[in-house]
Design a protein that fits this description.
The protein has two domains: 16-145, Rossmann fold (3-Layer(aba) Sandwich); 155-349, 3-Layer(aba) Sandwich (Aminopeptidase), CATH 3.40.630.30. It is built from eleven helices and 15 strands. It has helices spanning 42-51, 64-73, 90-101, 115-124, 152-155, 157-173, 178-184, 199-208, 221-228, 278-292, 308-316; strands spanning 16-19, 26-27, 37-38, 55-61, 84-86, 108-111, 129-131, 187-193, 233-242, 245-258, 261-269, 296-302, 320-325, 328-333, 345-349. The chain is 32% helix and 25% strand.
Length: 351
């Protein structure tokens, strides 16, 4: 097998399409004529993107209530999360959307009929894919809009983000400490070996997850299938749920087991669970496993412009740098001080 540290270079896919409204989603200008009509074919495009797990939002210079009422009347309001309907620049609206969803600005596509608006966005955010409405007939065929696999998590992505919005709103209103709020969620974190049915989601996680990712390595379906059957590797998938529902399969971990040394080659968690502390739960589980096996536990870390939090997570777990070369760090933990499991999370380990 090729060195999995190199991974596979995958072209960036769009995670969220941001729509203008006037003369884009609908024909006409709402403030001038309340009887605007939907653009031909737009409903099919919006529903197709949703079914592929591509999120959608709005960046429109409009009166918020009137625009949302019109989207409700068209039966489309539910498809858009964190809509930015205001008089701000489109570039600032895109920044707000990316920040609210917690994804990179380079994973957005922006559709607007006005060249000025596209140019303004492109000037501020050159990595955003800007599209004119004349390009809509070919939008669904663009490589950036076609994930390799459509998993159950993909199909449910919008609903899971809507649940996250509910949780976030409740957290803002919660009277008490962060620990008390986490305890109130009744979280259950499940760890299992990756099965054949998990491989599509496992590949999707390596391609889509950048912030809570210790190395940024990506793996193809075929590579992951070989690794899950390898006697010298441990490939684990993790799932999180709480009293509001499932977050889906949100984590992937790869451990290379050589003689008396275990090395965490990859540890990633979906950005949607960033504030839930489950990365530490996973690391703690691996520390216990390694100690039971009488192995030294090491961890590879490759610094990117997005994953600083995972470096801090390793440091808090007691890992120390034993090798450093450029962006690459090799950590080691002597396993002398294992932490108890988090009181906020029920851990379930499936055989």
């Amino acid at each position: 097998m090729t060195n999995e540290s190199v991974g596979t270079k995958v072209r960036q896919k769009v995670k969220c399409v941001v729509w203008d409204l006037d003369n884009t989603v609908w024909e006409g200008v709402l403030l001038e004529d309340v009887n605007v009509s939907l653009r031909e074919g737009i409903v099919d495009i919006i529903k197709a993107l949703d079914s592929r797990g591509i999120l959608q939002s709005i960046a429109s210079k409009n009166e918020h209530k009137s625009a949302m009422d019109k989207l409700e009347a068209f039966g489309l309001a539910e498809y858009f999360i964190y809509p930015q309907i205001n008089w701000n620049s489109k570039s600032s609206s895109l920044s707000a959307i990316a920040g609210s969803i917690n994804i990179g600005i380079d994973t957005l596509a922006f559709v607007d009929d006005q060249p000025f608006e596209r140019e303004e966005v492109n000037f501020v955010h050159p990595d955003v894919l800007c599209l004119d409405v004349t390009e809509l007939p070919g939008l669904l065929d663009m490589p950036e809009m076609n994930p390799r696999f459509i998993t159950e998590d993909s199909k449910n992505r919008r609903q899971m983000y809507m649940s996250d919005i509910t949780r976030n709103n409740l957290e803002e209103q919660f009277v008490g400490t962060q620990e008390e709020f986490l305890a109130s969620l009744n979280m259950k974190f499940t760890i299992a070996k990756v099965g054949e049915g998990d491989l599509q989601r496992a590949e999707e996680l390596t391609v889509r997850t950048h912030q809570l990712n210790t190395t940024g390595y990506t793996y193809s379906y075929e590579e992951l299938d070989a690794l899950r059957q390898s006697d010298s590797h441990l490939l684990l998938v993790s799932e999180l749920e709480d009293k509001y529902g499932s977050y889906g399969k949100i984590g992937l971990t790869l451990v290379e087991m050589n003689d008396n040394v275990w090395t965490i080659k990859l540890l990633l968690m979906s950005c949607r669970v960033m504030s839930r502390g489950v990365g530490s739960v996973m690391i703690n589980h691996l520390m216990h496993l390694a100690k039971e096996a009488g192995a030294t536990l090491r961890a590879e870390f490759v610094s990117t412009d997005k994953n600083r939090m995972m470096y801090v997570t390793y440091k808090f777990a007691g890992f120390k740098e034993i090798q450093e070369e450029g962006d690459y760090v090799l950590f080691e933990n002597d396993l002398s001080s294992l932490q108890p499991l988090s009181p906020h999370v029920t851990l379930v380990v499936e055989p």
